[in-house]
């Protein structure tokens, strides 16, 4: 129960207005500082937008090897284009759409090679990716981590469209709808309704398993 | 739509409430909570791998205002028809900036290419923020190198007083 209360508090602390959170408003300023040679600004961009890029890669279900290369390529290209980014405020969207394009290119070249049995495509969550050990220190925490595991399992079994959308939405800090749109190639206006439908579908699955 | 219909069937036993429009604040808050829970789950179960985080930090070294970026204008992976039964056909790439173009062929035994208009150049084959293997283009702009790049790569060309870097892409 208390973990749920903690979640509620964490959520209430941040703005409901997507894309206008403090973190995102800073992106343009950080890009401009990085252009001027501020390495700390670059670091803040990597910390703030890296999870979004990773989410886009994961949403497309690439193999680990492909995913890692796409992630690197996106950041190398971002560094390369840094001084030429036309709209610094939209750097998140730039990264998201660059990641999407690289993912699609990878998937296209894979289908061309007719690779049918890449075992890495099958199982996403590795065993060493379990929640931090400290979480397991009490029974309550154990129950919490069990819930997290089931949540992840149900999420992973959603239909492609919902799984992809939610994987991008759950980047931290939360991406703006413009960024989600760039990451998935869907209209900004369709994200809200689809998000609602997918989250409620996920909750229904959890309820059906009696884990909520 | 179709790929999500599975979820409908799975959820039907629980009373199919999930698709009922619920515009109340309560529904919104619940949605937000579940999304936040997913965010925490992702942070715990599927975070950015540390090695990748470090590589992205190091990538700042690739920021170079003095270099011109030659953009990819042709990629046989995308712009040509698939070749049936021939997995070892070299990949053809063309990069362009201003009047300068670089044609590159990446094959199993290495890479070869030409700088146009023809001119000598020193070429670095980059695979990341660090220094890369060095090649030389002759007076006709032709160059060859081995082994072929693996993973992300870019070519940095020094021609006259000019530095040109090709857009990063995956080999």
UniProtKB/TrEMBL annotation, chain A:
It comes from the Bacteria. GO terms for biological process: DNA-templated transcription initiation. The lineage of its organism: Bacteria, Bacillati, Actinomycetota, Actinomycetes, Kitasatosporales. InterPro entries: RNA_pol_sigma-70-like, RNA_pol_sigma-70_dom, RNA_pol_sigma70_r2, RNA_pol_sigma_r2, RNA_pol_sigma_r3/r4-like, WH-like_DNA-bd_sf. NCBIfam families: sigma70-ECF. The keyword Transcription regulation applies. Belongs to the sigma-70 factor family. ECF subfamily. SUPFAM superfamilies: Sigma2 domain of RNA polymerase sigma factors, Sigma3 and sigma4 domains of RNA polymerase sigma factors. Keywords: DNA-binding, Sigma factor, Transcription, Transcription regulation. One of its GO terms (molecular function) is DNA binding. Pfam families: Sigma70_r2 (PF04542). It comes from Streptomyces mexicanus. Residues 45-112 form the RNA polymerase sigma-70 region domain. This is Sigma-70 family RNA polymerase sigma factor.
């Amino acid at each position: 129960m208390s973990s749920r209360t903690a979640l509620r508090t964490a959520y209430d602390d941040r703005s409901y207005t997507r894309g206008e959170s403090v973190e995102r408003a800073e992106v343009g300023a950080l890009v401009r500082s990085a252009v001027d040679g501020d390495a700390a600004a670059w670091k803040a961009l990597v910390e703030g937008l890296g999870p979004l890029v990773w989410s886009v890669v994961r949403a497309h279900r690439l193999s680990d090897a492909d995913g890692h290369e796409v992630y690197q390529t996106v950041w190398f290209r971002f560094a390369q284009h840094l001084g030429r980014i036309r709209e610094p405020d939209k750097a998140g969207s730039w990264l998201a759409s660059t990641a999407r394009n690289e993912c699609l290119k990878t998937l296209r070249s894979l289908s061309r090679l007719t690779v049918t049995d890449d075992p890495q495509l099958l199982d996403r969550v590795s065993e060493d990716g379990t929640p931090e050990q400290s979480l397991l220190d009490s029974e309550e925490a154990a129950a919490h981590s069990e819930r997290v595991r089931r949540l992840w399992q149900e999420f992973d079994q959603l239909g492609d469209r919902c799984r992809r959308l939610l994987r991008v939405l759950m980047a931290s800090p939360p991406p703006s709808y413009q960024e989600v749109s760039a990451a998935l190639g869907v209209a900004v206006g369709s994200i809200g309704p689809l998000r609602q439908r997918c989250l409620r579908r996920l909750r229904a699955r959890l309820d059906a398993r009696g884990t909520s | 739509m179709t790929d999500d219909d599975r979820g409908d069937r799975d959820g039907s036993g629980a009373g199919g409430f999930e698709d009922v429009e619920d515009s109340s604040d309560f529904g919104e808050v619940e949605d937000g909570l579940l999304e936040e829970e997913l965010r925490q789950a992702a942070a715990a179960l599927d975070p950015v791998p540390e090695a990748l985080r470090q590589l992205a930090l190091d990538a700042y070294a690739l920021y170079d205002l003095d270099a011109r970026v030659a953009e990819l204008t042709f990629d046989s992976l995308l712009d040509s028809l698939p070749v049936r039964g021939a997995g070892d056909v070299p990949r053809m790439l063309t990069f362009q900036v201003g009047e300068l173009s670089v044609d590159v062929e990446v094959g199993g035994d290495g890479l070869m290419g030409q700088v146009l208009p023809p001119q000598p150049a020193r070429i670095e084959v980059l695979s990341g923020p660090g220094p890369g293997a060095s090649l030389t283009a002759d007076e006709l702009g032709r160059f060859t190198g081995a082994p072929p790049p693996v993973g992300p790569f870019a070519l940095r060309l020094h021609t006259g007083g000019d530095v040109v870097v090709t857009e990063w892409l995956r080999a």
